[in-house]
Amino acid sequence: MKFTFVTLFANLVEGYFQDSILSRAIEKGLICVEYLNPRDFSNSKHAKVDDTAVGGGAGMVMNPQPLYDALKFLKQSDKNVHIIFLTPVAKPFRQNDAKRLANKSHIAFVSGRYEGIDERVVEEFADEVFSIGDYILTGGELASLVLCDAISRNIEAVLGNSESLDVESFETHLLEAPSFSKPQNYEQKSVPSEYLKGNHSKIRSLKLALSECKTKFFRPEQLLKHRTRKSYEK
Ligand code: ADE
Questions:
Q1: Contact 85, 147 (CB under 8 A)
Q2: pLDDT digits (tens, 9 = 90+) for 71-80
Q3: Which domains, and CATH codes, for the chain?
Q4: Which atom of ligand 1 is closest in space to residue 130's alpha carbon?
Q5: How remote is the CA of residue 86 from the centroid of ligand 1, in Å?
Q6: What is the pTM of this model?
Q7: Ligand 1, residues 136, 141, 149: which to mutate, most atoms within 8 A of Cβ?
């Protein structure tokens, strides 16, 4: 899978791939990462990429021309590229999107800075538009990294242990049960005794009960979805 980050600030993104699971995925050839800077496509004398908003409003908006030309270039070099814009004005990104998008061969993330991107660019090039949550970041770079990370770990062999994908939060609308590591007793706190007894069916039931508790506390609306789905499956 290839990821292209279309950004004025590749340096904000690059560091994330220098360590850990994603750097190993690059070494193994499972993913590759490229950068495209719209400024390199600007026709203006000083490689300008933004301007004041037409119709008024605070802040600067990214001009259409540099992005238009950068994205045209990208599509000419790969007609299968799937172009995703990151903006708070979009549908929320979810785990099922991460799984679905892991099947693409090439994804480009377009990050806006300043007050946003000229809407004509979005209309012309966006295959999808995502927000990562109801808050405003200073730019789309962090959001594009969030998507890239969540998508990458759903690509075959990236995690190295496909089991770890099986019982994750959101797969069933439930948040995951708590995990514990060794030692069994730490600071006078023990791991749940059932986890230690080796009866896997009992451990599974306890984990399900704990998942439901966590979900009820943190995300009650998800518990409702889980219960609705279960009643349909009956
Ligand atoms: N750019 C700025 N804020 C964002 C958000 N919440 N999601 C995606 N892109 C953004």
A1: no
A2: 999 999 999 9
A3: 2-152 (3.40.1280.10), 169-233 (1.10.1270.20)
A4: 8
A5: 6
A6: 0.92
A7: 136
